[in-house]
Design goal:
Layout: H1 2-25, E1 56-58, E2 62-64, E3 85-88, E4 90-94, E5 98-105, E6 109-112, E7 115-118, E8 124-137, E9 140-142, E10 147-152, E11 155-160, E12 163-165, E13 172-175, E14 177-183, E15 186-188, E16 195-197, E17 201-207, E18 210-212, E19 219-221, E20 236-238, E21 241-243, E22 254-256, E23 262-264, E24 267-268, E25 286-288, E26 295-297, E27 310-311, E28 315-317, E29 323-324, E30 327-332, E31 336-337, E32 343-350, E33 358-364, E34 368-372, E35 380-390, E36 395-399, E37 404-406, H2 410-419, H3 422-431, H4 433-446, H5 454-460, H6 463-486, H7 499-505, H8 508-516, H9 520-531, H10 539-546, H11 550-562, E38 566-569, H12 572-576, E39 582-585, H13 587-607, H14 610-619
Parallel strand pairs: 1-4, 2-5, 3-6, 4-7, 5-8, 6-8, 7-9, 8-10, 8-11, 9-12, 10-13, 11-14, 12-15, 13-16, 14-17, 15-18, 16-19, 17-20, 18-21, 19-22, 20-23, 21-24, 29-37
Antiparallel strand pairs: 25-26, 27-31, 28-30, 30-34, 32-33, 32-35, 35-36, 35-37, 38-39
């Protein structure tokens, strides 16, 4: 009888936890969850690397060494011309040597819509070697110690519509390659050249790019040594904007140490007159620097070859689905102007799904605004628009991805809170008490336990064992937070989760997995990986310390990895022996541990009540 009562006590807690997970699947804000104060922050950073929940946040760089490695990335595409592999929407920030490193491939692939931010020790943003059939497009690539993009011993490569900036050396470097297209890129404020065609480079087309305020030449072809033959020829440079490059000297903005390279109809910011016949062509050719041959742009443009552009903002909050009350901080990532001009923002609201717009605020200079929504009527449904405008008049617009609600009535909020309150859950628990006693206990005693579910996982442990697990869980949570913070430039989003964000971060299939088939061994392994140092988070060590068969441990780790609760930690040791491959928790794993902590906190509180244990002993 004592064991039956003990089981009922634990089952009440687990039902409470399962209701919590069900609420998460509905996206409901839970008043019963109170994340640690150190996970909350009044203000989050507004840099371009701010979190975007539509993108995939990668804590490790992407490395491809051969064709078959693309399959390991779990990305779309088949690697053929009409269906290439697509590396898309990654936000990679860190001090890695190469953020994206791809070598020895001949399949078709695209790298697009990514944000790549190297920290102090990062050498390259994107590095391609011995590659064919690649496209790099619509990426923001910044802050590498050496070069933004390197193309080595490769051919049939297209680099287009990228923003490449603030690299210590060159924006783009190409060598020993041919049939390369550079088109419509914004390459600016790099520490050496904007583009360097270094050696043995032929048939490169450089069209419609903007190269601005690169410290040395905007474009350099070949080495800078006298009598050196870099073997760079038949390259075409047309309709590009060269703006204030090589600004520390009075030299040309481009250098050509190759041969048979064509410069045509480019705009040179210091060379705009004379144009006596007013045909938009400067009457005097623009001279290109060279040690080897004489080259020039015979028809330099008076006016820019292409208009200024803006790298548009992304609305970070609200994105859609929120209930906004009182005062709300609206945030968006900063826009960038290709001319380096300052940008003003206009924030607007539409309550008719975008047919009409009312301005909330104008001439904002910071990518955030405190919005007072108390003046709007109850249950107002709207979407937001951010318009970024530079001094040159260029505009870019971004929208919230879905509608949100303003000032939901108090009685609706009260009902929502009641539905999610512990008291209503307690009523449900009590109503199921008899069913738990007569069915749950009987079923538990009847079957042979091969793999514990979460309820059985908690039931199995006595108070002392539970406290040891809880102690490991608390330390593990702190370890994971420290590790995540140490490997990312900006994890302010990790310190400002609210319940709505937590609810929305889980895809429905993962919520279903957690509710239906998440096992006790999965939980133990997840806690142990968080608690142990990274060098002891491999399956061999976990199987030994948890006394779980090696194969079972490996299967559970693979499941956690597939569900994106774990990520691999690669070291020289693991390359020699894959059995020693170590793991650490992802942000999703961290959030799951917080939810589990709430359940265990309640469980231990109830277990501490000595009166209950005395009653159990008497009954037994």
């Amino acid at each position: 009888m004592a064991k039956a009562i003990h089981f009922i006590l634990f089952t009440l807690i687990i039902i409470n936890f399962q209701l919590l997970m069900i609420n998460l699947s509905d996206g409901t804000v839970l008043s019963s969850i109170d994340l640690d104060k150190d996970l909350k922050s009044k203000e989050s950073s507004s840099s371009l690397t701010s979190i975007n929940f539509e993108s995939k946040i990668s804590e490790i760089p992407i490395e491809i060494q051969e064709n078959k490695d693309f399959e390991k990335l779990n990305i779309q595409g088949k690697g053929i011309r009409n269906n290439p592999y697509i590396i898309e929407n990654f936000n990679i920030t860190g001090s890695f040597e190469r953020l994206i490193d791809i070598r020895n491939t001949d399949v078709y692939f695209e790298i697009k819509n990514n944000r790549l931010n190297s920290l102090s020790k990062g050498l390259y943003g994107i590095f391609l070697a011995n590659v064919t059939h690649a496209t790099i497009s619509n990426n923001l690539i910044k802050n590498s110690k050496f070069h933004g993009v390197v193309v080595s011993s490769s051919n049939v490569i297209t680099i287009e519509n990228n923003w490449i900036t603030n690299h210590t050396n060159n924006g783009i470097e190409i060598h020993n390659s041919f049939e390369i297209t550079l088109e419509n890129n914004i390459i600016y404020e790099n520490g050496n050249f904007g583009i360097w065609l270094r050696d043995n480079v032929q048939d490169v087309k450089i069209f419609d790019n903007t190269l601005r305020r690169n410290y040395n030449y905007g474009l350099s072809i070949g080495y800078g040594y006298l009598n050196e033959n870099p073997n760079c020829y038949n390259n075409e440079i047309e309709r590009n904007n060269f703006l204030e490059n090589n600004y520390q000297s009075n030299k040309s903005q481009a250098r050509d140490h190759g041969k048979s390279n064509i410069f045509l109809n480019n705009y040179w910011s210091e060379w705009r007159t004379p144009d006596e016949n007013e045909n938009n062509i400067v009457d005097i050719p623009y001279l290109i620097d060279s040690f080897i041959s004489t080259n020039n742009d015979s028809f330099p443009l008076v006016n820019r070859a292409k208009l200024p552009e803006i790298f548009k903002s992304q609305l970070l909050y609200p994105k859609g689905g929120e209930n906004l009350v009182k005062s709300v901080i609206v945030e968006w990532s900063p826009a960038l102007d290709s001319m380096g001009q300052s940008i003003n923002y206009t924030l607007s609201l539409s309550v008719d799904n975008g047919l009409t717009w009312d301005n909330i605020a104008e001439n904002l200079v910071k990518p955030r605004y405190e919005w007072d929504v108390t003046t709007y009527s109850e249950n107002t449904v709207g979407i937001l628009k951010i318009e970024a405008k530079s001094l040159t008049g260029v505009k870019q617009v971004s929208f919230s991805t879905d509608s949100f609600t303003i000032n939901k009535p108090g009685w609706q909020i009260l009902v929502d809170d009641l539905i999610n309150s512990f008291f209503l859950q307690l009523v449900i628990i009590v109503s199921l008490l008899l069913l738990v006693m007569f069915l749950g206990w009987f079923q538990f005693k009847k079957r042979i336990i091969k793999d514990m579910e979460i309820s059985e996982f908690i039931y199995t442990f006595k108070e002392k064992q539970m406290r040891k697990i809880y102690h490991k869980l608390i330390i593990g949570i702190e370890n994971v937070k420290t590790e995540l913070l140490s490997t990312s430039e900006n994890l302010s989003h990790l310190l400002s989760y609210d319940q709505a964000v937590i609810a929305n971060i889980y895809p429905p299939d993962i919520q279903t997995e957690m509710k239906s088939s998440f096992k006790g061994k999965s939980v133990l392994i997840l806690i142990e990986i968080a608690y142990q140092p990274i060098t002891k988070s491999n399956t061999s060590y976990l199987a030994k310390i948890l006394k779980i068969p090696q194969q079972t441990t490996s299967d559970e780790v693979k499941k956690l990895y597939d569900l994106k609760y774990l990520k691999p930690c690669v070291s020289k040791e693991t390359l020699l022996d894959t059995r020693k491959k170590n793991y650490s928790l992802t942000e999703k794993g961290l959030i799951f541990l917080h939810l589990l902590k709430e359940s265990l906190t309640t469980t231990i509180t109830k277990m501490k009540r000595e009166e209950i244990y005395e009653e159990i002993e008497e009954l037994s």
